Amino acid sequence: MPNSTMTDIVRTSSRVYSFLLHFYPPRLRCRFGAEMADVFEEQLRDAFRERGTRGALSIWYCATEEIILIALPARLESLVVPAVSLLLSLLLIAFFFSAVAPTCHGLK
Q: I need a labelling partner for 89 at 20 to 30 A (CA). Which of 26, 39, 43, 65 fits?
């Protein structure tokens, strides 16, 4: 495979991977995102040199697996706590108004 083709594929793959880093929780991405992108690009370039397209696909397989098994669950976990908090707050407000509503009707 010509060197320019490998460079184009590595560059494009790196951009896609950098976008996919947004699936990681923000604190993790801010702290390690640049390093993760650098390591991915380095591993991809090395795999391409050693094993060609199959090597690159193996790096993508590992990256995709990590995003699905680690990044997405961590990201979803960070969304669950605020969602549960909002739900409980709404339930408390509804309970408060249902308890106060009969008293308000008696004032009319």
A: 26
